[in-house]
Structures are given as structure tokens and as C-alpha cells.
Design a protein that fits this description.
single chain; about 270 residues; two-stranded antiparallel sheet; 8 strands
Length: about 270
């Protein structure tokens, strides 16, 4: 049997509970896919987006709903080693990618004030535009469960605000487009185990800007690492800490909130 078929089997059999069922749970619970959707699965080359692409292939193969999918890779200026690694992994996994070139790394390399934030915004914009060119109405990103709960803690501890990474978001800059995160309930440790089980190696940070400046990670990534360590420490005392962080965003009691924001308007409890 070809290698990619063995890899596909591990998603729906070996990791059925940890990956496949949680993938389906998020899509179903948050109504991420509708009839006649065309979804651009955005592949960065990392483990999360590559797994997401394989999950969508399985869903397309077995699901009765009529929808279409494209596998989109944006090259922001990777060196040849990283670019070729993405292409090689796509061939190993039998993912028919569409790759397009941009000059994002070049455009942000001399910007000193928050280059990583600007880079992320530009990448999102390019993905929306290319997806629309391909006739897609949605883009799917590979953010997983741990990304979500780390974002909640980062907002509270560093941003003094209570917010979460939403499972789906309508684009304000590209009308008619929507962003979905189908790995919302899939844990990063299970993705890592899936990679090791199949002897897969994906690219990690391939950013030329941080490499050129001598910075190992951008500030946001460093804070995210702090959140990972904090959550691991808390789980030593109580194993359900991580899931409770997520559930706290689903069980907000407005009667006990000093103020909240709705449609950019602050509403205090005294009103």
C-alpha cells in the first residue's frame, strides 16, 4: 500500500478519537461547512495545516454533503529548502497543492515596529484574495485546541481582556468570505503523536525576518511559550485545567461581569 494511504488510515483508525472525532465535532457544532461551499485549506507547511488538509480529504471522500476544497500554499518568501520541503511533504501525503508566490518577507524585513503582526495581517489578506480567485467562499486554518486556550490566557494576562480565538469569523475586509478553524478541539500533543507515528517531519519557523535579525522568536510567540509552560504546570495539580479554560469562554455569566463590549460599544453593568 502506498504510504499516504497508510497515513490516512491512522487518522480515521489509530487516532479516530483524538483527531478525527474532534475534527468532525468542531465542524458540526459550529456549522463550519454548508452545502455548495468551496473551502481553501491554507497550508503553511507545518504539522497542523498538513493534518488539516488530510482531514479535509477524508471528509470529502466520506461525507455526503456537496462541497469542494482547494489546498492553498502561500510562499511569503521561503528559502528553497523550506519551499521544497513543503512540496515534498505534499507529494508524500498526496495533497494536490496550489502554491502562489508573494514578497511579504521582503516587504516587512526592514520594519522595526511589530513586523510579525504586519506579516500576519498581510498573509491573511493574500490568502483571502487568492481563495476568492479560486472561487472559494471560505478559508480553513490549522489553529488547534492549544492555540485557543493559550490565546484566552494571553488576552487576560497581557491584554487585560477576556476574549477567545473564534471557531469561525466572517471577514470584514473581504465580503462574502469566512474563516474557519476545524481543528478547534484537536490537541497539539495528539497532532505531534500522529506525526511521530507516521515518521513525518514538517517545517517549523521558516521566517527570514526573525532569522536575519537574530531573534529566535517574535514577542507573541515568546508569550505563547510562557502560556504553554503555565498550562503544563497547572495541569500537574488539576488535569482538566485546559478544557476548563475553553469552557469558561462558553459559560460567561454577564450578571457577574463589570463590563463587556458588543459591536465595539462598551456596556457597563451599571447601565
Amino acid at each position: 500500500m502506498e504510504r499516504y494511504k497508510e497515513i490516512e488510515k491512522t487518522i480515521i483508525k489509530s487516532y479516530r478519537k483524538e483527531i478525527w472525532k474532534n475534527f468532525i465535532k468542531a465542524i458540526t457544532e459550529f456549522e463550519m461547512i454548508k452545502e455548495n461551499d468551496k473551502i481553501a485549506v491554507c497550508i503553511s507547511g507545518g504539522k497542523d495545516s498538513m493534518l488539516l488538509a488530510k482531514c479535509f480529504q477524508e471528509l470529502k471522500r466520506h461525507n455526503k454533503m456537496n462541497f469542494d476544497v482547494a489546498f492553498l500554499v502561500m510562499n511569503p518568501g521561503y528559502d528553497e529548502i523550506h519551499k521544497n520541503k513543503i512540496i515534498l511533504n505534499s507529494e508524500i501525503l498526496n495533497i494536490p497543492i496550489t502554491m502562489f508566490e508573494t514578497d511579504i518577507f521582503y516587504r516587512v524585513e526592514n520594519i522595526e515596529d511589530h513586523p510579525c503582526y504586519l506579516c500576519a495581517r498581510m498573509r491573511r489578506g493574500y490568502l483571502y484574495e487568492k481563495a476568492q480567485e479560486l472561487g472559494c467562499n471560505k478559508i480553513a486554518l490549522g489553529h488547534h485546541f492549544n492555540d485557543v486556550i493559550e490565546t484566552v490566557l494571553m488576552g487576560m494576562l497581557y491584554g487585560a481582556q477576556m476574549q477567545t480565538m473564534m471557531p469561525k469569523v466572517k471577514s470584514t475586509s473581504h465580503p462574502g468570505m469566512e474563516l474557519i478553524r476545524p481543528l478547534y478541539y484537536v490537541r497539539e500533543d495528539d497532532i505531534i503523536r500522529w506525526c511521530k507515528r507516521n515518521d513525518l517531519e514538517f517545517i517549523k519557523c521558516a521566517c527570514k525576518v526573525t532569522k536575519k535579525s537574530g531573534i529566535r522568536e517574535d514577542e507573541n510567540s515568546t508569550k505563547r511559550e510562557e502560556m504553554k509552560k503555565l498550562i503544563r504546570k497547572l495541569k500537574e495539580s488539576y488535569d482538566n485545567i485546559d478544557i476548563n479554560i475553553l469552557r469558561s469562554t462558553q459559560n460567561v455569566n454577564l450578571d457577574t461581569i463589570i463590563s463587556y463590549t458588543k459591536k465595539r460599544r462598551n456596556i457597563p453593568f451599571l447601565r
